[in-house]
Design a protein that fits this description.
The chain is an alpha+beta fold. 16% of the residues lie in helices and 42% in strands. It has an 18-stranded mixed sheet that branches. A hairpin with a 4-residue loop joins strand 4 (56-62) and strand 5. The chain is globular. The protein binds (2S,6S)-2,6-diamino-2-methylheptanedioic acid.
C-alpha cells in the first residue's frame, strides 16, 4: 500500500489514491494506520476514487473507523494531491463527497504546486431534525443543553456533517477534553456531533477549538470553521466573511448572500510518502 501523509492546518490524513473503490476493511485499516503509536498516525484515512459525477470522489474514515460524510481540510488535501501528482491539469476541479454532493474546488498554483484551495462547501443545513438533532425547529440557535449539571447553549449547523457551535469566554483555554466527548455523544445528537467552542473577537475574526466526532481534539476542522461562521452570522457576532482561527492556523470563510453557499479558503500540505 502506497500512501501520502498530508495535512490541512495540522488536521492530518493518510491519503491513498489509485484504488477503484473503498476496501472492505477500510474501517479496520483506519483504526490501525491512524494510531499515532502503533501506526502512521493521522486524524483520518482518505481515499481518492474515480467518480461518475465529478472529476474525483473522496471517502474519509475517521481515526475511530467511522465514516464522515464530508471533510473540509481533507478536500483541500485531495485537490493538492490530484494536481501535484498530474492526475489533473485543471485549476478548477469537482470532487464528489458522501454527504455534501459534488463540490467545486479552485486551486491556487505556484511553482507547479498547489498552495491554497478555495472550496465551494455548498449550502448549510439548519433544520434541527436534518442536522440531525432531536430539536424539531427550522433553526436551532442558542438552544440549551445540559451535560453533567452544566448548561451550554448550542447552534446547530450541518455542512454535510453535523456540528454544534458553543460560544465560550475563552475558546483557546477551554477544557475540550472534559466537555467535548460528553457533547459529542449527547442523546440530542442522533448521529453524534462535531463540537466547536468559539469566541468571537471582532466582526471579522473568531477563535475556534474543536472536538471532532470520531477523532477527538484535532488542530483544525474545515467543516467546523464553516459551521462556526454560519452560526456566528445567525447569532449576530460576525459579518458574512470572517477569519476563523484554529489551533493549526487560519481559514477564511465566506457565506455568500447570493447563492447561500459557504466558501472556505486555506492551505494544504504534503508531509511525506511511504509504503507499507
Ligand atoms: O464529521 C466528522 O465525523 C468529522 N470528524 C470529519 C472530519 C472533518 C474534518 N476535520 C474537516 O476538516 O472538515 C476533516
Amino acid at each position: 500500500m502506497i500512501f501520502t501523509k498530508m495535512h490541512g492546518l495540522g488536521n492530518d490524513f493518510i491519503v491513498v489514491a489509485g484504488k477503484q473503490s473503498l476496501p472492505d476493511n477500510a474501517a479496520e485499516l483506519a483504526l490501525r494506520l491512524c494510531n499515532r503509536f502503533f501506526g502512521i498516525g493521522a486524524d483520518g484515512l482518505v481515499y481518492i476514487l474515480p467518480s461518475e459525477k465529478a472529476d474525483f470522489r473522496m471517502r474519509i474514515i475517521n481515526s475511530d473507523g467511522s465514516e464522515a460524510e464530508q471533510c473540509g481540510n481533507a478536500i483541500r488535501c485531495v485537490a493538492k494531491y490530484v494536481y501535484d501528482n498530474g492526475m489533473t491539469g485543471n485549476e478548477e476541479i469537482t470532487v464528489e463527497t458522501l454527504g455534501a454532493g459534488v463540490q467545486k474546488v479552485q486551486l491556487t498554483v505556484a511553482d507547479g504546486k498547489v498552495q491554497t484551495v478555495r472550496v465551494d462547501m455548498g449550502e448549510p443545513i439548519l433544520k434541527g431534525l436534518q442536522v440531525p438533532t432531536t430539536v424539531d425547529a427550522e433553526r436551532v440557535i442558542e438552544h440549551p443543553i445540559e451535560v453533567d449539571g452544566r448548561e451550554f447553549k448550542f447552534t446547530a449547523v450541518s455542512m454535510g456533517n453535523p456540528h454544534c457551535v458553543i460560544y465560550v469566554d475563552d475558546a483557546v483555554s477551554f477544557d475540550l477534553e472534559t466537555w467535548g466527548p460528553k457533547l459529542e455523544t449527547h442523546p440530542m445528537f442522533p448521529r453524534k456531533i462535531n463540537v466547536e467552542f468559539v469566541t468571537v473577537n471582532s466582526r471579522t475574526q473568531a477563535d475556534m477549538r474543536v472536538w471532532e466526532r470520531g477523532a477527538g481534539p484535532t488542530l483544525a476542522c474545515g467543516t467546523g470553521a464553516c459551521a462556526t461562521l454560519v452560526a456566528s452570522v445567525l447569532t449576530g457576532g460576525t459579518d458574512r466573511t470572517a477569519t476563523i482561527s484554529l489551533k493549526g492556523g487560519d481559514l477564511l470563510i465566506e457565506w455568500s448572500e447570493e447563492d447561500n453557499h459557504v466558501y472556505m479558503t486555506g492551505p494544504a500540505a504534503e508531509v511525506f510518502r511511504g509504503s507499507l
